[in-house]
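ok trying again, last paste got cut off:
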Amino acid sequence: MQLCRFNDDQLGLVRGDEIIDVTAALKILPRCSYPLPKHDLFIAHLGAVRAEVEKMAEGASKRYALAEVKLLSPVANPGKVVAAPVNYTRHLVEAREDKAIHHQNQIGEIQRVGLFLKASSSVVGASAGVSIARPDRRNDHEIELVAVIGKSGRNIPASRALEHVAGYCVGLDMTVRGPEERSMRKSPDNYTVLGPWLTTADEIEDVDNLDLLIEVNGEVRQRANTRDLIINLAGLIEFASSFYSLHPGDILMTGTPEGVSQVFPGDRMVAQISGLGRMVVDIHRDQTA
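nice, full thing came through this time. structure:
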């Protein structure tokens, strides 16, 4: 099942080039009062929501053309965004060789440097686009497979890790190059783009064999397959959960392959991963400057 958040926080079932409005399925979510839960309610109750969606989908009267809606992040309230640095060997090589990427930072292997966190306030959907936060710096695109955690856990073994995944989406880990720590340079507003929708885990037969592709203005910039990950998704979940608990709605970005490059206002990125869809993301000038 492919579910999107669109327009004014509506819930949609994606069927080809059409979105069926199934917002009413959200009525099963529990009402909350302060203090609010630390997880995303939709993801935590995804099974129940899916059952409601299946009941109402065929009879739903509100339908929209996919091209006409505003796609929001499929996860509204991620507790945290966990990201994997240099998790493809060829990207590790290019990062070490290109001064404009490493900026005199030491680029270590992922097994040694570990993972990092991005601000949850950086998360947006495809339609929001990316506003260049630091036009005085190089700003790069990085396409990544994203897993959305569906079940809480700590010290999760790799053998059971995929049981904790609710679904997947395409991710862009936008990056400002410079001397600061990764978490700072990758956390400006709208520098974590998720979309175009959530593909539930049961739809993906082999998450370790998915093709990734990103084009900028029609030019292929990055092309790879998840089989080339240094630490695969199951290993990343084991690694992350050995340090902190994972909760429903947490985002796990698995790392980007070689080919990262600069983007500018006016550019259009088209990012896709096999089985997960294709999202169009425009680059804008920072309107807050």
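cool. The first strand starts at residue 2 and ends at 6. The mean pLDDT is 94.
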